[in-house]
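User: Let's play a game. I give you a shape written as tokens, and you guess the letters that built it. Ready? Here's round one.
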């Protein structure tokens, strides 16, 4: 296809879009909604994966000490932790340091801590692991051994939190694929219906083109471009709205979620992901046009 034919196809496609504004407005809205939903789930998954990476960065076994633990018991626990080949470094956290950390991470709960009249947070020993991605079995054996020592109140292993957050990310991906996939199929059907009505409205013109020897490619080209342009525009607007949501969510809604803000949040899409939404919109529009052309020209 030479440049003149391509130019004519784009001009005709633009004419189709202008003449079918009411029908295409519905198609465009459905396309934007479909890819917006897919993009929001993708953005939520990005946030969850980011949080999981942060949690995994300093995977630690945290040994909480009993308030009644003696100095000798504390030294025994700390020595036991230091001697483990699984541990890279050890840090002792006093109740005062734990309180300061709590207020830094949860400033909204300052009044709750102050109303207690005392610091309820225990002293702890944090053991940073050498291999954060190592198997659970040796770590579980170390934890079981520490749990039996006098002076140990409780033990927390924060890698399980990162694993759970990562699992939430995978769940978000799965839900996004299902919901987004259903909406995208619906958008293909809506685009197909709009393009089909455009084809039927130009039935006489198409018949004349056939009579004067126009090829099927020449006739179908503008209709294919019609769906492609509509889809690319819908995907582009959806990608922009996801970016806007990622920017505005922390400002207007994020703080109201408190501690859940770290999990229920949106992270901007990568350039590849944004391009994927735009390309996916174009593909959905193109498939809608192909479906419409197949139905009309077959009948």
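Assistant: Ready! My guess for every position:
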């Amino acid at each position: 296809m030479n440049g003149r034919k391509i130019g004519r196809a784009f001009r005709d496609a633009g004419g189709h879009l202008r003449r079918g504004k009411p029908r295409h407005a519905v198609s465009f809205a459905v396309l934007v909604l479909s890819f917006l939903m897919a993009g929001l789930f993708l953005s939520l998954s990005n946030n969850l994966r980011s949080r999981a990476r942060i949690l995994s960065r300093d995977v630690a076994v945290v040994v909480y000490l009993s308030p009644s633990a003696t100095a000798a018991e504390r030294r025994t626990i700390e020595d036991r932790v230091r001697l483990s080949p699984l541990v890279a470094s050890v840090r002792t956290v006093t109740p005062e340091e734990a309180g300061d950390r709590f207020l830094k991470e949860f400033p909204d709960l300052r009044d709750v801590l102050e109303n207690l009249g005392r610091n309820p947070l225990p002293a702890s020993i944090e053991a940073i692991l050498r291999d954060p991605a190592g198997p659970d079995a040796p770590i579980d054996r170390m934890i079981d051994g520490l749990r039996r020592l006098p002076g140990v109140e409780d033990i927390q292993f924060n890698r399980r939190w990162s694993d759970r957050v990562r699992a939430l990310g995978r769940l978000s991906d799965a839900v996004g694929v299902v919901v987004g996939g259903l909406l995208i199929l619906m958008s293909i059907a809506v685009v197909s219906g709009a393009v089909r009505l455009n084809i039927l409205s130009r039935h006489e013109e198409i018949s004349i083109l056939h009579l004067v020897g126009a090829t099927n490619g020449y006739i179908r080209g503008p209709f294919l471009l019609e769906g492609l342009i509509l889809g690319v525009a819908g995907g582009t607007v959806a990608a922009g709205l996801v970016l806007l949501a990622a920017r505005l969510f922390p400002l207007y809604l994020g703080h109201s979620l408190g501690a859940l803000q770290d999990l229920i949040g949106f992270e901007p899409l990568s350039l590849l992901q944004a391009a994927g939404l735009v390309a996916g919109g174009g593909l959905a529009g193109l498939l809608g046009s192909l479906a419409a052309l197949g139905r009309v020209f077959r009948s």
